[in-house]
Design a protein that fits this description.
alpha/beta, Spore Coat Polysaccharide Biosynthesis Protein SpsA, Chain A, 10 helices
Length: 297
């Protein structure tokens, strides 16, 4: 990450195998009221190289860089690489196939300018499910500025879903302190990063649906016990990170961690019964009652 004093706002677009979606994303960026000082597109060795799509839009930006990995690095690796190329003080992580309100970058930049202790800013989102023409809005009960530890405890701790996913704008200084995104958490490594950032920085929020999420079918949206275990481990690691210096509080939060895991497993098992996924039911019961289960620690 080599800083450049002339570049304040960098945009990193991570891409994989969604050429038409990438085109929509880049078109959306050209309409921003606050144009990025540089745009970096990092393709994670897609089977179909999107360079022809990238070339259509590169001239619209004052500084544009296209990177294509020589092998598939998966989400954490591709994101780490893209951010390493960014030179701005503020770095926006965006995903291919998402589209944005024209004021997204302007409002995110204003939030970080207004709250100097905020490590990152995120916003509300909307999506149009494949089976419906009705917009779904996700606007959360979060003020424009929160203490980071308070945000972690109120909105992230012991939860198996997150208000914050991969699309944020973060300070370069925060990334320099906390990178890399941890590959062991796979597609949830971004959530882990925001958890870790909450320990040292505060959080800003724009309560407007500034992002139109791509809602096309994806394998990562399908139910998978292994991904639940990844989230559980991420939660447990951050419990230790936040409370290891306070043994009494650590014991309390570990008990809460076990309780949350048990409730989540039971709820998911009932969901597998509803879907008549009996292999999934057996897998869930095996996880819940295994000797290594957090519920039995």
């Amino acid at each position: 990450m080599v800083a450049n004093s002339k570049i304040k706002l960098s945009v990193c677009v991570t891409a994989y195998n969604r050429k038409s979606g990438l085109s929509r994303t880049l078109r959306s960026l050209t309409k921003q009221t606050r144009q990025p000082d540089e745009v970096i597109v990092s393709d994670d060795y897609s089977p179909d190289d999107p360079k022809n799509v990238v070339d259509q839009w590169a001239s619209y930006f004052s500084n544009f860089q296209y990177n294509r990995n020589q092998q598939n690095l998966n989400m954490p690796g591709n994101l780490n690489l893209a951010i390493s190329l960014a030179r701005g003080s503020y770095i926006a992580n965006l995903h291919d196939a998402d589209e944005f309100d024209t004021t997204l970058l302007e409002k995110w930049e204003h939030a970080l300018d207004s709250y100097p202790t905020a490590g990152f800013v995120f916003s509300g989102v909307r999506s149009i499910p494949q089976t419906s023409s009705i917009n779904r809005f996700d606007l959360h009960p979060v003020p424009p500025f929160m203490n980071g530890v308070d945000f972690f405890e109120q909105h992230m701790l012991h939860r198996y879903s997150s208000y914050v996913w991969g699309t944020v704008m973060a300070r370069r200084t925060a990334y320099q302190e906390l990178l890399p995104f941890d590959a062991k958490y796979g597609p949830y490594s971004d959530v882990d990063m925001w958890m870790r950032m909450c320990k040292s920085y505060d959080v800003a929020y724009v309560r407007e649906p500034l992002i139109l999420l791509d809602d096309s079918p994806s394998t990562w949206r399908k139910f998978d016990w292994q991904r639940i275990e990844i989230v559980r481990q991420m939660q447990f690691d951050n419990v230790k990170r936040f409370y290891s210096s306070n043994p009494d509080r650590l014991r309390i939060e570990i008990r809460r961690h076990r309780k949350a895991y048990t409730k989540m497993c039971l709820r998911r098992i009932l969901g597998r019964v509803w879907h008549r996924d009996f292999d999934g039911v057996l897998k869930g019961l095996s996880l819940l009652f295994s000797t290594n289960s957090p519920a039995k620690e």
